[in-house]
Amino acid sequence: MTQTSPADGLDAATRDFLRRTRTRGRQPLSGLSVQQARQFPSWFELLFGPAPALARMRHLSVPALDGTPLHARLYADDPAADCLVVYFHGGGWVLGSVAAFEPYTALLAQRTGTAVLSVDYRLAPEHPFPTPVDDAEAALRFGAAEGARLLGRPLRRLVVMGDSAGATLATVAARRLAAAAGTRGADLQVLVYPVTDAGFDTPSYRDFAEGYLLTAADMHWFWNHYCADPSLRMDPDASPLHGDRLHVLPPTLLFSAELDPLRDEGERYAARLREAGVDCEMQRCPGVLHSFLAMANTLPAAREAFDQICRRMRERLA
Known about the structure:
single chain; alpha/beta; Rossmann fold; about 20% strand
């Protein structure tokens, strides 16, 4: 029997994309300062294209737990939207912003018929763990308390969602809110290629350590800036795979990327949620890389994965 290599999962368009990325000399994050890394345009700006025109976009201020105002944007296209998605962007807790992710979050609102509240949580290393987690909890609390006012009608479903490091913040915020007495929790969480463990020791970390856009060295760089003290990294608020109160979490849609160092830890988290009794639907998206949301307008496999996410959200929220 011929052994299948990870690269066999790539279609021609994705192979060409990786080839062009290499020939353009993309510098590894491990060789950059935070300031240098933040100077590069985001993948959404480069690949996704402009945001769609929506019926409604508002700038908001969300109070953090310590009272600091956090910038947020509310996107809605359906005037009858009665579901609110509180969204946390990816970027390893170090990079990214509401503005950079607007092409995707605006299209998400359009394609799912929801209102999307995208929040600028504070970034590391200026604001290391647990500040981004605290900010995510504050934003989800705000969505629960103010959702009806933001929508102009009763809030039927509250959804918490994120991609990559943002998915980590989403699920920890959902767990914290579910455990708080007298507070409405999320009705659904949607986690896209989440970071759930700081162990770096899964088969997917070995198979996709280099050559598939996100590298193992990149993830070490992110963790070193976000949670520099290794003794804190197995805290369930940093590595939710190690949590012991997962049963309080809401029904879950979890999407992993086939060709991603984070694939196995995300899928292990889905398994742990099921073991805890959570209604968790896990989908491994074939032939796609980490950050495939940014590639939905560029690569066919990423477009299919994005369509699947929107389709399952619509069905779950119907």
